[in-house]
Amino acid sequence: MNIVTRVERRTSVRDQARYILKRVADGLLREDYRGLARDGELLEVADVPFFGSIIANATHYIRWNAPDESKLYLPVERDGFMHGWRIAALPLVRIARQTMRPVDSVTELLEILGAGLGAEDCANITAYLAECQAAIEHGALCADAHGRASPADARIADHPQWHRAMLDNDRLASFADHPFYPTARAKLGFDAHDLIAYGPEYRKGFRLAWFALPVEGLAAQGRRPAVWPSFKDVGLDPTLASTHALLPFHPFMRGERIEHVLGEAGLTATAHVAPADYLDVVPTLSVRAVAVVDEPGLHLKLPLAISTLGRLNLRAIKPSTINDGHIVQSLLSDLVAADPAIDGRLLLTDESGGACHSNHRFLSYIVRRYPADLDGAEPVPVAALMAPMGDRRPYAVHLVDRYYEGDTEVFLAAFFDLLLGIHLRLAARYGIALEANQQNSILLFDRRAGLRLLLKDNDGPRIDGPALRDACPRVAHWIGRLQDERIAAADADAVAQMLITITIQLNIGFVVEGLGRNAGKLPHYRHMLRAAVERHLDILAGEGIAIAALRTALLESPHFPIKYLLRAASLETRTATGAVDVNKFYGRSAPNFLTAPARP
Fold first, then answer.
1. What is the residue-wise DSSP string for 55-97?
2. Whose CB has fewer CB within 10 Å in the chain, the N or C terminal residue?
3. Where are the extended beta strands (E) located within 410-556?
């Protein structure tokens, strides 16, 4: 079943530019860039100095006074999820020197917001404009692939049904934009040819490139896949096997890019780039992870010199993550085996294999193996749930029809029970919050075994080390083997921050908001979620687990933390934000959408 063939959509560059303008404006308002939300004045439509009611859905305007004495009017409607007010529609309006004009390009919007900034911030805006242009171009290209059969379909035709479904659902998710980062469509570094050749939206198969690197300086762990080539297979002298090891690299890196990397590592004279490519693969949602055609369920994660979710988010592989992903996976495996409330509901990929040379982030790879017992399951990344289908309904509704006889509330109850039952338990009992975002959280729809959760890529959690040692001394030895000291140095507040921003807002909240608005039942679905949170906290309390602080953070605090992704990864310097990690820069401006919502 090729899910993507159900969708027929064509988007012009002009349409895509308007779409990106609205998303960028909404992101800037949500993250309160330059005080848009804090300093902006909320006006009724009747109080704006122009015919504001021409904009559909706008009930109010936010007026922001720019440093150049112009005024920017943002048409807004109530939100209550990630911000109090969100952009209702275009156009935005600017009034300067008694002249009113619509703001109809992201360039003009950022010029207005950049007025009065210093040279470094202006340079950031200029760089972000290039990202916006890439998002527009890539969005139009991706829309052109929507509805087309994948060129790689024939290559995976004999794969197990679960793996074909997972790759199809991965591709479907690639057409859905990130909920909160407005220009996530941009893969900075890819041109049109690269996007078509290597992007999951087009899903063309290709072969991996290889090089032979000296054994000295190579740090390897885990089991090497049986599909690895010989030196002869890739056109290299077999005698090199006594002094060198073969490592794969993404063909996008071929040529000047990989030569530059080898030069940085001091390997120009001793490395051998293979003349022949080897091993057929197809791209997955993450772009840098590829599925091996000859061994279904074996994926390889390879560094790419591109950036996604902001130009500072380079898609390399830090050497520490190879170790830490395996350590966290091992820790979680021990906890799952020891905790009946999680055992059987949470599955993990095996990411024990990988290698890195010269401690260099572009001379590395990670081996990912999926569990063997997925027959009968349909793996769906959370990122695919709200992907729009040909009938304009989100994909989650199609899954509800297929697995829950069309009853969305039964699905939501199972969805809440699964994610809250696992993540609230990990946080409250063990002091663990996983960075299990929409891409790395895979729902296993299974008529036989029920809904289960499969997690991958667990190298960036936050762990309250002392809390974990107290709760489960038998796993404490794993903590000392982590290389990133920040992981186990978290406190209860840091754990709650990640739990809320990833599990509650990104994975659960976004689905609740989307399905609720689609069905006209948003207050009811929010109430269902609050009741589910209360129930799971009560279960934990009944086991003697301290949940008071978590209850306050989830159900009583008027505001939730919020990731300021756009500001930290693109628009502001680390000096200004103080962010050690651009993916973990938080504000506290998101409304707590679980705070006693009105009963339906």
1. STT--EEEEEE-TTS-EEEEEEEE--SSSSEEE-SSPEEEEET
2. N
3. 432-433, 441-445, 452-455, 462-463
Out of 3.65.10.10, 3.40.50.1220, 3.30.310.280, 1.10.1160.10, select the CATH number for domain 1-148. Answer: 3.30.310.280
CA–CA–CA angle 196, 202, 396 (5° rounding) = 145
Average pLDDT, the chain: 94
Residue 545 to residue 433: CA distance in whole angstroms = 16
CB atoms within 10 A of CB 515: 24
Contact 165, 27 (CB under 8 A): no
Find the DSSP H helices in 362-442: 395-403, 408-430
> Which residue type occupies 514?
G
**Interatomic CA distance for residues 24 and 571, integer angstroms:** 12
pLDDT tens sequence across 393-437: 999 999 999 999 999 999 999 999 999 999 999 999 999 999 999
Pairing of strands 452-455, 346-348: parallel
Domain extents for the chain? 1-148, 378-591
Query: What is the predicted pLDDT for the residue at 598?
Result: 46
Integer Rg of the chain from CA:
24
Answer whether CATH 1.10.760.10 is correct for domain 378-591: no
Cα dihedral value 17, 22, 28, 30, nearest 10: -150
DSSP 3-state of 374: coil
